Amino acid sequence: MKGFSSATTAAHLHKTPLFSSNFSNNNGASPPPILVHRRFLKFHFCPSGPSASASASASATMLKLLRLPRVHCLTAATPTPRVRPVSNSVIQALGRLTGLSRGNHSNLGFRAFFCSDSSDGSTPEAVVEVEVRAEESESDGSDSKSSSAIVSTHPRPEDYLTVLALPLPHRPLFPGFYMPIYVKDPKLLAALQENRKRQAPYAGAFLVKDEPGADSSPGSEMEKSVYDLRGKDLFNRLHEVGTLAQISSIQGDQVVLIGHRRLRITEMVSEEPLTVKVDHLKEKPYNKDDDVIKATSFEVISTLRDVLKTSSLWRDHVQTYSQHIGDFNFPRLADFGAAISGANKLQCQKVLEELDVHKRLQLTLELVKKEVEISKIQESIAKAIEEKISGEQRRYLLNEQLKAIKKELGLETDDKTALSGKIICLSGPPGVGKTSIGRSIARALNRKFFRFSVGGLSDVAEIKGHRRTYIGAMPGKMVQCLKNVGTANPLVLIDEIDKLGRGHAGDPASALLELLDPEQNANFLDHYLDVPIDLSKVLFVCTANVVENIPNPLLDRMEVIAIAGYITDEKMHIARDYLEKTSREACGIKLEQVEVTDAALLALIENYCREAGVRNLQKHIEKIYRKIALKLVRQGASSEPAVAGEDVQPAEVIAEVVDDGQQVGNETSVVVESVGSSSDEQTAETHVQTDTVLTDDQPKDIKESEATKTMEKVLVDSSNLTDFVGKPVFHAERIYDNTPVGVVMGLAWTAMGGSTLYIETTLVEQGEGKGALHLTGQLGDVMKESAQIAHTVSRGILLEKDPGSPFFANSKLHLHVPAGATPKDGPSAGCTMITSMLSLAMKKPVRKDLAMTGEVTLTARILPIGGVKEKTIAARRSGVKTVIFPGANKRDFDELADNVKEGLDVHFVDDYSEIFKLAFDFDNDTRN
Ligand SMILES: Nc1ncnc2c1ncn2[C@@H]1O[C@H](COP(=O)(O)OP(=O)(O)OP(=O)(O)O)[C@@H](O)[C@H]1O
User: Fold this and answer.
1) Of 12, 269, 485, 885, which residue is most buried, by most CB within 10 angstroms?
2) Ligand 1: which residue has its CA nearest to atom 7?
3) Helix-strand-coil percent breakdown of the chain, rounded to 5?
4) How far, in Å, from the CA of 897 to the mean position of ligand 1?
5) For residues 242 and 234, is the Cβ–Cβ distance under 8 A?
6) How many CA atoms lie within 13 A of 719 on its CB side?
7) Three-state DSSP class for residue 855
8) What is the dihedral of CA 363, 367, 373, 374, to 10 degrees?
9) Burial (CB count <10 Å: 0-12, 13-18, 19+), residue 728
10) How far is CA 717 from the centre of its chain?
């Protein structure tokens, strides 16, 4: 059943006066159409397989013809029946079916067989043979007598006892059905044509047996090999029982067959083309009034009707069949059912071979029952898919309606409201990629990007525009932005929002408020344009280094995302994967010309670029590559034969490459100066120069040997890093290998990232009532207060440990926080100060490699601090082993990546007493 298509045929119905059926052929291409009269095409089906197609069309033809009044059908008992045609059109149609009505046969009689003449005497209706002369069919008055006198010389089908054997690869041919086949054997084709010429257009069509395990589907190798079979090989592969087939037409190698009656091969007569002797088979005699046979046939009919209910594909076909069911005899019904079923070839062959009519009906019943099941499954699959599709369509329609309703009610949210909430503020140290992230968000959202910095902005007119009364008045930044991007929904990055100036002419923070607030910015009023502008679709992203510096009303409207600095590992990756690559490309250096070792990069990060971001690292890497470019250019210049007057040229090129903003001349010495900032760099460059640059003063042989030198790969290692970037700007943060009495290492956070710092306390003088504290190191107010608190708490703790100790009462202390040039502030050094003072008071140094941070209250409770990640990184960088953090910061620490926390012994404390134990309760062996 599957693959049947009545629609294809129906389309043809309206296109051609003589209709062509859509047989699909053996190799998948469409063969030339078989001409069938309009009246028959209604029942013409196009099954998937070639034979099925043919069978279906033939069955339709057969059904149509069965509509003829019984009077025109002669019984088998009537010898060689000759009747006048019922109508010319039917005769013409039959003529076309057989292909004999064409001009070259027009003067010959033709037979149109739509059922085989397999008469057995018991089924008179079974034999329907119409024999007329074409001329006669077109004449009007000739009577039956005259027609009977004409065709007696032609052999009847049953006279063919030796036939050409045609191999059928896919399905057997049933009597009464069409089948187009391809004959690839030229000898066989010639013999068939010859037969047709001799008015003996019959051959035997036999199904080919499959080779075990071979794929016999259309187009398969096995199918192709069937056409190559010849002679005995072919003979051995043919099923014994086949069909006497009338050769309806031959077009090229396509032969259209019409099945007539069953045959059985008895012996091979000749090999090429294969010719066989056959017996004509007849059904076993049966009683047409037998109840069992009747019942079986009724079941076949009712099953066909069931198929009709579930499958629209068979509807026309079976409907017609059921209308004319009375015209069939039992064997024909069985053949019909099997032929139009989608059963496989062996099942069909079994039906063909079955001569017992009851058994044949039973076999067919099985096949059509299977069809019912298949069509039920087909129906349920179709239903399920239909439901799925209609469900999806319904959902889609409902969603669209919902959207429309929401829009109507003003409830619809665009992707901005759906977003990465309100205004996003990226906060973090300089150079960690905040601006770059903003740019990436715009790219990801497919929005235009506009950036403006409000650092130091103090004039409200910059944001809101000038009133037009002023000379040189301009619209504000937002109007300029919209004009620039040309869309209503750009991503606007407001940089440095924490550095907003305090305005003399209005408050820029308040103006920004109007700009950023989603409640207000739908009607933003620019003074210059003086019309409300809708900024509600704009996605604002702000960046800041210190969130605390952002005005509170603004901060309140922001979603702050903190971007901490990078650790060494991360910087290494950024340098290797991105910075190095871009710098190398910018300087026009090839990968194979340079190697910067890991050690060099690490040294660069640790000793030159300690800041949280990578901007400084980028500058250094660019510097290194520019110098490498210089070196390579000079090498290249020196390897070319020096021509007087040309030796200056490379320096000009270099000047462009190396130019980092300074004026560079075309003299080599000037180039060197422009590159290096320290005297060491100059020395390095001068050294490079003297190695490679040739002058006219040099002897010719030296020039030539230099010229033949191949270009060397430039290696940048930690050992020669200073040649490229000068001496390290950062020295080890550790001043002491072992902290002396009164000195403790603290951890600090700066806008540049984390760092370690020492708190040093020393005794100035002692004397009755001289207790005092002197502070130095550019401490801010908060830090000063913190020191006072530490002094008081230390005194209390010492008295607890050593009641009656007069140390703090009688000692003038000096507390210093190096480096003195750097301003410092904040309360987080509180616990470090206490430890430093107690160390001095007890004359006991603290545990080795210990660093701590935490604000302290007067009651010695430890409060949380900020910048845990940066401080942890700084501690690791300084080789600290034990770190003390406030207990409340445990959550922040736990969130850090493992590679940041690696190798640290971290303690979380809530009271100073815990720090005391960690710092002082150790034996001296551990410290050393
Ligand atoms: N993760 C990273 N990968 C590659 N390059 C980076 C990364 N982070 C920062 N950079 C580079 O560092 C430079 C500075 O980045 P960017 O301007 O985005 O930093 P920022 O945080 O906005 O700095 P600022 O606060 O000073 O404005 C850029 O050249 C950028 O390409």
Assistant:
1) 885
2) 433
3) 45, 15, 35
4) 21
5) no
6) 1
7) strand
8) 160
9) middle
10) 42
| Pairwise CA distance, residues 107 & 87, whole Å | 19
- Tell me the two tokens of residue 721: 């890093």
Tokens 């077009």 correspond to 251
CB 812 within 8 A of CB 764: yes
Q: Where do the CATH 3.30.230.10 domains begin and end in the chain?
A: 743-927
871 is catalytic: yes
Q: Taking all residues of the chain, what is their mean pLDDT, rounded to a whole number?
A: 73
Distance CA 245, CA 243 (A): 6
Q: Sign of torsion, CA 779 784 786 791?
A: positive
Q: Are β-strands 162-168 and 275-280 bridged in parallel, bridged antiparallel, or unpaired?
A: antiparallel
Is the Cα dihedral 96, 99, 104, 107 positive or negative?
negative
For residue 694, the model assigns a pLDDT of: 39
- Mapping DSSP onto H, E and C, the string for 721-779 reads HHHHHCCCCCCCCCCCCCCCCCEEEEEEEECCEEEEEEEEEEEEEECCCCCEEEEECCE
pLDDT value of position 65: 35
* Catalytic choice (350, 464, 571, 871): 871
Report whether 429 contacts 558 (CB < 8 A). no
| pLDDT the model gives residue 422 | 65
509 lines ligand 1 (CB under 6 A): no
**Residue 51: both structure tokens together:** 């034979």
What region, left, alpha or beta, does residue 645 occupy, with left being phi > 0 and alpha being psi -120 to 50 degrees?
left
DSSP labels, 14-78: TT-SSEE-----TTSSPPPPPEE-HHHHTT----SSHHHHHHHHHHHHHHHHTTS-GGGPPPTTS
Calpha distance 175→158 (Å, rounded): 13
CA distances in angstroms from 663 to 378, 658, 671, 723, 849, listed in the order given: 84, 10, 9, 22, 48
- Kindly give the parts of the chain with pLDDT less than 50: 1-152, 325, 416-418, 421, 642-709, 925-928
| pLDDT at 839 (0 to 100) | 92
Residue type, 273: P
Task: Give the strands of the sheet with 539-544, arranged side by side.
Answer: 449-453, 491-495, 539-544, 423-427, 558-562
Phi-psi region of 95 (alpha: psi -120 to 50; beta: other; left: phi over 0): alpha
Rounded Cα distance between 58 and 616, Å, is 88
436 lines ligand 1 (CB under 6 A): yes
Structure confidence at residue 576 (pLDDT): 92
| 418-562 belongs to CATH 3.40.50.300 | yes
> What gap in Å lies between CA 21 and CA 55, rounded to an integer?
12
**Which of the following is catalytic: 53, 828, 839, 878?**
828
CB-ligand 1 contact for 678 (6 Å cutoff) = no
Class of domain 743-927: alpha beta
Reading the block at residue 229, the tokens are 């079979």
Instruction: Clarify whether 828 is annotated catalytic.
Output: yes
- Taking every pair of Cα atoms in the chain, the longest distance, rounded to a whole number of angstroms, is 161
CA distances 262 to 204, 313, 346, 712, Å, are 9, 29, 16, 92
Side chain identity at 617, as an amino acid letter?
L
| DSSP bridge partners of 649 | none
How far, in Å, from the CA of 495 to the mean position of ligand 1?
13
Tell me what pLDDT residue 503 has: 64
Q: Whose structure tokens read 């009707």? A: 305
HSE (side-chain half, CA atoms, 13 Å) at 769 = 0
| pLDDT value of residue 815 | 93
Q: ∠ CA 119-114-315 to the nearest 5 degrees? A: 120
The predicted model scores a pTM of 0.47
Residues of the chain with CATH 3.40.50.300: 418-562
Residue 248: which H helix or E strand, with range?
A: strand 241-251
What was the ipTM of the complex prediction?
0.96
Phi, psi dihedrals of residue 114, rounded to the nearest 5°: -115, -10
